[in-house]
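Exercise 7. Predict the joint structure of the components listed below.
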Amino acid sequence: MYTQLFRGTGALVKLLFRQQRFKIIIWLIAIVVITLSAASAYPTMYQDEQSRQAFALTMENPAMQAMLGPGYELTSYLNSVGTLFAHEMLLFSAVAVAIMSILLLGRSTRADEEDGRTEIIRALSVGQLSYLSASIIVVVVTNLLLAILVGFGLLTLGIEGVDLEGSMMYGAILGMTGLVFGSITALFAQVVETSRGTSSLAFAILIISYLVRAIGDVENDTMSLFSPLGWGVHAKVFMENDWWMIILPILVSLFLLGVTFYLNAIRDVGAGFIPTRKGKKHASAFLKTSFGFVVRQQQVMIISWIIGLFLLGASFGAILGDLETYFADIEFMQAFIVNESGNSMTEQFITLLMAIMSLIGTIPAVMVVLKLKGEENKNRTEHFYSRAVSRTKLMSSYFLLGIIVTVIMQLAVAFGLWLVGMTVMEDALGFGTTFTSAFAYLPAMWVVVGLTVLLVGAIPRLTGFAWGYVVFCFVVLYLSGILDFPEWVNNFSVFEHIPQIPVEDFSIATTTSLIILSMLVTLVGYIGYNKRDITG
Amino acid sequence: MKMLETNNLSKRFGKFTALDGINLEVSEGEVFGFIGPNGAGKSTTIRILLGILKATSGDAKMFGKDAWSDAVDIHKRIAYVPGDVNLWPNLTGGEVIDLFTTLRGAKITEKREQLIERFDLDPRKKCRAYSKGNRQKVALVSAFSSDADLFILDEPTSGLDPLMEQVFQECVLEAKLAGKSVLLSSHILSEVEKLCDRVGIIRQGKIIESGSLTELRHLTRTNLLVETKERLSDLEDFKGVYDVVEKEEAVTFQVDTEELDHVIRHISKFGILKLESAPPTLEDLFMRHYEKKVENA
Ligand SMILES: Nc1ncnc2c1ncn2[C@@H]1O[C@H](COP(=O)(O)OP(=O)(O)OP(=O)(O)O)[C@@H](O)[C@H]1O
Ligand SMILES: [Mg+2]
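Solution:
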């Protein structure tokens, strides 16, 4: 009976690996290369005690703990460079691994089912649970591979304080985070009927995990342990090496996967557990316009992102109060971080925060525009183009919505930050400053939206490059200090050109040139789109 | 007036030539059947006519306008039904029909309700819950409730049950009565035979035959069954005679329509006792053209 359920799993594992090999290879290479090159930069950056003490001081403040995790005791930083590296890199690497697992598993479970591929396979002499098992095996193997590569890679670098146990643990934390989020995605894939719904829910859990951990790390460590992202940063890798934080995710994953298999076994192919209700007999006036249609198709996604970004902004706003007291308490901090322009530490922190938030807010805008390509892949744009709708008109609906989304996302972040910041701070953030520093990033976001239009319009085979560019901008923002990229590489990221308000002044020249650039790339996209074949 | 016209239309996908000099014409009030084996280029031709694909060379015109550059204008006067109807899982059938109508730039009429009834469609169901046939009905209701002048139908009935197939044929005939034109691509030959005035056969990107059904029949073979007093001889040696099978008393064979006169004169010498002839079906015509592919290869 049991062998019947899993028949053909081996062959399916091979099939899925073939389908996803490029994605898997690129993710693995990216994560391993970035981790190892960052790690090898630390010993030279923090050679003496003084620089490590400065690091400890910067990291000790609540804002940094919220962003990167609780960190270590000062003595740990002095005794091992590994701890500095882990504190700065571990959490965001774990988030990257989680995203990888969500995308891989969302693809091979719900998306394949939605497109009818699962049905064809199930009609062959293949067990009922084989496709699901194969998808899970692929993600497990990928994460194991990642853990091993990162673990042994770190060990071979021979960095002070990066011993065998610590390296293995660092790799294991990344791999196990991937496993947990993979299992969460697999579970959602059983419950929700669409692949978008599946990955959106999984991403929502990822954001919530981050927030719970952020607040927990500042307010209460126990709370942090309710978040899968909290486990890794509390393992004290390279010092105490708490292996329970590895065993815990394994147990949780096993439990989640058990439930997943059970649900998969009792449901029908193509179905979910949330039943479909009867709907309207007629379309509303809004839905009947192409813009209204585009909004309607994506509104759930957009609203979820608005809530997510508002909460992110609000969480950091909540920390601002602690941050303020912290800076006030330690007066000699001011001596360390040179501050010519007279900006408060809080303001400096806000500039960094805004840069990161703007990049995150770009993601839903890119998703909105890429949806046009998704519709084409599903042969649904032909419904528009066989009727009296021009290509320019339909593309404009997606483009316009993308632009609107960037504005809404910045509003959500700034509003969350300002509103909560106001209640917890004595010397509250200026309303104007907060919103200007958020809106200053809009031109850069528009360039990325324009780039996506260009890809969809002119080079539709390479639409994945839009994500590549977002990741690149993120790497430049996050790692340029550590990895010391040449200036011209940094310049490729449009986000690097944005003046960091309130620390820097608003610049009309940069803003105008970025807006012109965004219009140019968008225009090329439009021209290409009006010339090319539509595949469906 | 020509509703639709292509002139030496060619389309290449990279190195592969999907269409190679297609000439087609559909006149006003005419139902044109477009048939050919899988991968022959029917859908590609239709997509060029719809301005979704761009022709590599040659031109495609509808209502005298260019199919690519005047697409939006042209589409106000046409209705299209694809063979594979992919719809949005979160919208209901009713919402999709309304959306399609307004996208054509038209108003919703009471014909919509009548057709929903005739095709027995539940417009309040979400599209994810529709079967293939039901998704096709959504597209058909939206097409036939419009007042388009030209209907472009690409295998529109591949998922319909016989009862609904009947309703579909009625709809096409009503459109024809109202003076509309139809381009119907189909693999169901009985449907083409019943509905179409003229037929074009496409194979490997080339039109290999086109004309009215009677004209095309002329090019085909007639099935004969004869019983004679004396035993028939020499039949195989005749030009244009195929598949001779001797049964107890009778002989059955096929004759090229051009050679019919010749052959009958020959047979009559043997004293005819019984003669049955059956007209060629479209099936015969079709098979003959499809088989050539094998011979050529
Ligand atoms: N985008 C494309 N790229 C490459 N080749 C294509 C593309 N679209 C169609 N073709 C090829 O062009 C040929 C004609 O395809 P088309 O879809 O027009 O056939 P068809 O006559 O509609 O067949 P069917 O009866 O199966 O629907 C096929 O060989 C197909 O593989
Ligand atoms: Mg076709």
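Discussion. Chain A touches chain B at residues 193-194, 276-283, 287-290, 293, 296-297, 378-380, 382-390, 531-534, 536 (CB under 8 Å).
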